[in-house]
Design a protein that fits this description.
The protein has 363 residues and is α/β, with parallel strands linked by helices. It has a domain of 104 residues. The protein is built from 17 helices and seven strands.
C-alpha cells in the first residue's frame, strides 16, 4: 500500500445513494472508508445503527471530525458557507465556535491551517486543487458541448450529444493527456491512476460518462460541476447528505458516526468474527497491490456477519478480477449491473456481494 500523506480528498466524489441501496444499512453496523467524510454522513440516511469511518491517513480523519463538529453546530446554510460551497464573510469566526468540540489532534491540525479554513475546507485537498487547475482547460475545450448538453430537453437527446462529444478527436486527446499514469502521478497526484491492475483511464471514463448521461441529466451529477468549474458553488446538485431535504435527517444521527485512524485491513484483523454487517469499501483497491487487496477480502469475509453486504467501487483499477475472491462472498450480478447504470458518480462500476455460509457436501 502506498502511503498517502496530507489531505488527499476534501470533497465527496461519489453518489452515496448507491451504497445505501446496495448495503441495506438500516439497523446495521457499517464500515466505510472515511476519505472526505461525506460517505459516512450520507450512509446515515439509510438509518444504520453505527457507521465506523476508517482511514489510515490521520489528516482525512481530522477533516471528517471537523465536518462532524460543524454539522452539529450549524444549520445547512451556515454549514455550506463554512465549508466553502457558498460564500462566507468570515469562516475563521465560525471555526472558533467549533474548535473546542474537536479532539486535540484535530484542533491542533486546523489551528495550524487558517488559510485552509478561510478558503473553505471543501476545496483544499490535493485532488480538489488539481481538479481546479484542470477545470479551465476542460471549460475551454468543452464550452460549446457543455452548452449543448445543458440545452437538451430529453435524456435521449442528451445521450446523442454526449456520444458525439466523446467521438471528437480533441476531446479524446485532452482526456488522454489528463487521465494517464504520468499525469496521475505529477498532476492529479493520486495513486489510483498509476497503481496495479488499472485499466485505460481515458477510454473507460468516456464510456462511463456516456452511460451516466443516458440515465441522468447533466446538472444532476455534481462531479461534472466539480470538474468543469473546479468547485460546487454553481452546481444544481450536491453530495446526498447536503441536500435541502436530507441535511435535517443526517444531523440528529451524527452521534452514530465514529472516525478511526487505521489501516482498514489491520482494523478488520482486530475485530471479532461476524461483527460487521455492511462494508462500503469505495475504490480502496486502487490504493492496494493485488496481494494486499486479496488479504483485505479475506479479512472482510472473516469479520462479516451472516448475510453481511459488501459494496466495492472500481474506478481505474479492477483488483476484484485479479485477487482471490472468498468463497463465502456471493456476488450479486443483477445488483452490480443496475448500480453501474444508475450511479451518478460517472466513473465507477460496482462489485457487490452478500456473505453466505459455505455448504458442505454430505456423503
Amino acid at each position: 500500500m502506498e502511503t498517502v500523506t496530507g489531505l488527499q480528498y476534501s470533497c465527496c466524489n461519489e453518489d452515496t445513494r448507491t451504497e445505501i441501496e446496495a448495503l441495506e444499512v438500516a439497523g446495521r453496523r457499517v464500515l466505510c472508508v472515511a476519505a472526505a467524510g461525506e460517505r459516512a454522513f450520507g450512509l446515515l440516511l439509510g438509518d444504520p445503527r453505527e457507521v465506523v469511518a476508517i482511514d489510515r491517513n490521520p489528516v482525512q480523519i481530522h477533516l471528517g471530525r471537523l465536518k462532524l463538529a460543524a454539522m452539529r453546530r450549524l444549520d445547512r446554510e451556515a454549514y455550506l458557507a463554512f465549508i466553502g460551497i457558498t460564500a462566507s464573510p468570515d469562516r475563521a469566526t465560525t471555526y472558533r465556535t467549533i474548535r473546542e468540540d474537536l479532539p486535540e489532534p484535530a484542533r491542533r491540525h486546523w489551528d495550524d491551517r487558517p488559510q485552509d479554513i478561510a478558503e473553505g475546507i471543501h476545496s483544499v485537498g490535493r485532488t480538489e486543487r488539481s481538479i481546479a487547475r484542470i477545470a479551465p482547460v476542460l471549460r475551454r475545450v468543452l464550452a460549446a458541448d457543455v452548452a449543448r448538453l445543458r440545452a437538451c430537453t430529453t435524456l435521449d437527446e442528451q445521450r446523442q450529444v454526449a456520444s458525439a462529444l466523446f467521438r471528437r478527436l480533441p476531446v479524446r486527446v485532452v482526456l488522454a493527456l489528463i487521465f494517464n499514469p504520468v499525469s496521475g502521478r505529477l498532476l492529479l497526484r493520486d495513486p489510483v491512476y498509476y497503481g496495479e491492475g488499472r485499466r485505460a483511464a481515458a477510454s473507460y471514463l468516456r464510456d462511463r460518462l456516456v452511460t451516466t448521461l443516458t440515465h441522468y441529466r447533466f446538472d444532476e451529477c455534481f462531479i461534472l460541476s466539480l470538474f468543469l468549474d473546479g468547485h460546487l458553488r454553481n452546481s444544481r446538485s450536491l453530495p446526498v447528505d447536503l441536500a435541502e431535504d436530507t441535511y435535517s435527517i443526517v444531523r440528529p444521527r451524527l452521534d452514530r458516526v465514529r472516525f478511526e485512524t487505521s489501516c482498514i485491513s489491520d482494523y478488520l484483523a482486530r475485530q471479532p468474527a461476524g461483527s460487521v454487517d455492511a462494508f462500503s469499501l469505495s475504490d480502496l483497491g486502487g490504493y492496494l497491490t493485488i496481494e494486499e487487496f486479496g488479504l483485505l477480502l479475506d479479512r472482510v469475509q472473516r469479520a462479516a456477519s451472516d448475510a453481511a453486504t459488501v459494496c466495492i467501487r472500481e474506478y481505474i483499477s479492477t483488483p476484484t478480477a485479479r485477487a482471490t475472491w472468498p468463497a463465502t462472498l456471493v456476488r450479486r450480478g443483477d445488483l452490480e449491473r443496475r448500480l453501474d447504470r444508475t450511479d451518478r458518480s460517472v466513473g465507477c462500476t460496482f462489485v457487490c456481494a452478500t456473505k453466505r455460509p459455505l455448504v458442505t457436501a454430505v456423503h
